Amino acid sequence: MNYKAVAIAIVLLLIIIIVVAYIRNTNSSEISTTDVNEWPDPYYMDRIGKFCPTGWVYDGRKNNRRDVCRNVYNIPVNGNDEKCYTSDFKGSQTYKNKVKYFPAFRKKWKECIDDPSKCGAAMKKRCKWISECGAKNNHDAQWIGFEQYCL
């Protein structure tokens, strides 16, 4: 048996183990730092979180001006239907569909939190909804990731 070949194989194996351990350690520290600093993740906020209260369903955009949110799971809101929902039909005061229209979000989430004035009405209307209809006492309605940016 060639001792030189065995020695080379052992050295290569040790190098591979050291490299793998270094990569695992580097990746795990990066993940934990980002998770702690930014939660929810900006990717989540851009795709889901900025449009509707937590647990509500985003139904898309109406007339390219309004984000349509639907409370399909009947999450209790803190406030009356007139404040917390958009009426179903013009002139009607029925709220059976539990829908709320918010001004359309047109900017990336990161741009909005860096400079809230860039998102104007979209941020203001959602913050107003949070203050009037959001979580209080025994009501569950909240907007995770959004609430802390309302003044």
Key features of this structure:
151 residues; 44% helix; 2 domains; mainly alpha; 5 helices; 11% strand; 3-stranded antiparallel beta sheet
Characterization of this structure:
- The termini are far apart.
- The chain has helices spanning 3-37, 42-49, 81-84, 109-114, 120-133, and strands at 57-62, 66-70, 99-103.
- The protein has a 3-stranded antiparallel sheet, covered by helices on one side.
- It has 5 helices and 3 strands; from the N terminus they run ααββαβαα.
- It is mainly alpha-helical and 151 residues long.
- The protein is elongated.
- The model is unreliable at 29-35 (pLDDT under 50).
- Helices cover 44% and strands 11% of the residues.
- It folds into 2 domains: 1-37; 42-149, no CATH class.
Series of H and E elements = HHEEHEHH
Strand content: 5-15%
Number of domains: 2
User: What would the principal axes of the Cα set say about the shape?
Assistant: elongated
Q: Largest sheet, if any?
A: 3 strands, antiparallel
What Rg is obtained from the alpha carbons, in whole angstroms?
A: 25 Å
Q: What low-confidence regions span 5 or more consecutive residues with pLDDT below 50?
A: 29-35
Strand order of the largest sheet: 1-2-3
* Fraction of helical residues: 40-55%
- Please, what is the average pLDDT? 81
Can you count the beta strands? 3
Q: How many DSSP helices? A: 5
Q: Which structural class do you get from the secondary structure elements? A: mainly alpha
* Separation of the first and last Cα atoms: 76 Å
List the helices and strands and how they pair.
Layout: H1 3-37, H2 42-49, E1 57-62, E2 66-70, H3 81-84, E3 99-103, H4 109-114, H5 120-133
Antiparallel strand pairs: 1-2, 2-3
